[in-house]
Design goal:
Layout lengths: L22 E4 L8 H9 L4 E5 L5 H17 L4 H12 L9 E5 L2
Parallel strand pairs: 1-2
Antiparallel strand pairs: 2-3
Helix pairs in contact: 2-3
Amino acid sequence: SSYFALNATFLGINNAGGLKGSVIVLMGCNGTDDSYSIQRFFERGTEAYIAWNGYVDLSYSDGVTLMLIKALYSDGLSLKEAVERVTKEFGPDPLYGSILYIYQGD
């Protein structure tokens, strides 16, 4: 398995508007669990945060992520439309039942 981490500087922690207009796509497990962290992203200018509400199988998450990117960039859908499309096409994670959520800023 491959993993990567982003340090605080990259995530705009030292700059109140450091994430202005960005979209956070968290494809690992339980990305909706920490409302405090999600709120901090929005305080730094994040436009949207997309994540799973529970555990998720790696191969399932990979397939959904690829379809999400295709829906956004090849098909030109909005963030909400893209999440709705992949949710409809893939359904919940077949192993854990997790669902992909989108949070959008004001």
